[in-house]
Specification:
By secondary structure, this protein is mainly β. It has one helix at 109-113; strands at residues 4-7, 12-18, 22-25, 28-34, 39-42, 47-60, 63-65, 68-76, 81-83, 86-87, 90-93, 98-100, 103-104. The chain is built from one helix and 13 strands. Strands 1, 2, 3, 4, 5, 6, 7, 8, 9, 10, 11, 12 and 13 form a 13-stranded parallel sheet that branches.
Length: 116
């Protein structure tokens, strides 16, 4: 069982977030997020302006401005919106989800960026 960290709706963080735990964001985050191999969830109240790298799975129910790279899957819920490019082998868009950007579902694309 993995640990889970939650950034509450009253929190505002600027800078780089890195870790090896699942992360839930319901507050405001600006910067870079790296949760290598773990799940990142942006809750309905989450407002994120960030580049997201190396996550295992990203689930968006709030608002995200920035590019995402995920190892397994990116899911945009009915209340979620993304303004940015997404890269993952699997992408799920719920009815009502909003996405403005490009989608790269080539499973080899993450291998090419792994050696950044």
């Amino acid at each position: 069982m993995s640990n889970q960290v939650c950034i509450g709706s009253s929190m505002r963080i600027e800078g780089e977030l890195t870790g090896h735990e699942d992360l839930i964001i319901d507050g405001t985050v600006q910067g870079t997020i790296v949760v290598t191999g773990h799940q990142l969830t942006i809750g309905e109240h989450g407002q994120v302006t960030a580049e997201i790298h190396d996550a295992g799975t990203v689930i968006v129910h709030g608002r995200l401005v920035g590019n995402i790279s995920a190892e397994h899957k990116i899911e945009i819920g009915a209340t979620g919106s993304i303004l940015g490019n997404i890269r993952a082998p699997r992408v799920v868009l719920a009815e009502g989800a909003r996405l403005k950007g490009s989608v790269d579902m080539d499973p080899r694309s993450n291998e090419r960026t792994a050696g950044r």
